[in-house]
Amino acid sequence: MCQLLGMNANTPTNVMFSFTGLATRAQEHKDGFGIGFFEDRGVRLFVDAQSARSSPVAALIKTWPIRSSQVIAHIRKATQGQVALENTHPFQRELWGRYWVMAHNGNLVDFHPRLHGAFRPVGDTDSERAFCWLMQELAKSHASVPSVEELSRTLAELCPRLHRHGTFNMLLSNGQALWAHCSTHLHWVVREHPFRPVSLKDEDLRVDFAQHTTPHDRVALVATEPLTRDEAWTAMRPGELRVFVEGLPRPV
Amino acid sequence: MCQLLGMNANTPTNVMFSFTGLATRAQEHKDGFGIGFFEDRGVRLFVDAQSARSSPVAALIKTWPIRSSQVIAHIRKATQGQVALENTHPFQRELWGRYWVMAHNGNLVDFHPRLHGAFRPVGDTDSERAFCWLMQELAKSHASVPSVEELSRTLAELCPRLHRHGTFNMLLSNGQALWAHCSTHLHWVVREHPFRPVSLKDEDLRVDFAQHTTPHDRVALVATEPLTRDEAWTAMRPGELRVFVEGLPRPV
């Protein structure tokens, strides 16, 4: 199974610690990785068809404190589509003058939607087809970039139509919010004041966030499986869609 | 003035040497840099609002031999739009299931085209507006991805309409070919068998390409100003559009 990681924060935050935890899980997920960072409206998207354990890009990300308020990362274990750069998540498109970044974990069976709009897959994965379809349907539903609430309502109508085709664990962001849809495995946690030391589950690594934060900072993390040992992660339910804004989860 | 660098090769080639030459020129062009590498249909796009002289991403690219057959790099000196990630070239969009990457050097005055199609700027530069307009007009001209020849003919009609608004030195690629349009400054050179040692103009750096190539390799480079001392670069004429395929220039 692929591994997803999403971050949504009320202040630009660096995700090195959590990404290191995710990359450790790349041993069994050697078919590429990717990570997208929003900086305001701009996006840095790093993709590599190599494993996150050996990729020079992953090494850069683990040491370079990129500060972002929306991050989506993905470690791939190919189910559909060959191992190639164009099949590596997250995918990116532009809609209404905003970049959109999406990563998917799961497998959509016999999912070949009619893509009659402006979004076509470049690679040959079910995930990119699902992303193009979502973008097309969002574009049909709103004339210009709607509020986070309106977008959430539209996504709440669209996601079940993908979930019906199989497993659709997904993270999506347009730089304003992070949407998470769970089919099988997604967990979230909010880090806020008072911050405490936290240990990664898969690495002998411990960070005291109190030393790196201010009392106003708030960070929501979403991951396939809990990344840390000493935090209370909440499991999402099958079919649940949640939107994270300013580091806080909102039900949809 | 911004600096452009494009590469088109008949075999995946690493561009570290030429990028090092370009990055040296970043002293006066400190408003960000970016570089896009096609690997087949996939793209790696690195952008940074920092100078290419200090950016950790630029350091990675100078040491990591990414092999690509189409590369577009840009070092920015802001004329329109603030220094921000979303204003950093190259820009990327998807059309007909292919990624398109574009970088621009120049300044388009009073250029506010009617963008009624599926491509909207995320940032606020004349360059991204020009790219969105080009994508929109290409999308209107062809139903699906046309041949390089047909695309070249359409671009030959569209580029003069941008050139009319000011300086439009531009590099564009969809992974199949590299298009270069010159308003004021663009030079190209082809490296092919027999390969010889070459020295960078701006750095004390010399590479003997004979040691890194096979007799079949052919690489075309396009740059704002010649990057090397010992090669015969051809200056493009104002209004000239050229397409490079498999390392060879073709007139349009």
TrEMBL record, chains A, B:
GO terms for molecular function: transferase activity. Pfam families: GATase_4. Keywords: Glutamine amidotransferase, Transferase. The keyword Transferase applies. This is Class II glutamine amidotransferase. Residues 2-247 form the Glutamine amidotransferase type-2 domain. InterPro entries: EgtC-like, GATase_2_dom, Ntn_hydrolases_N.
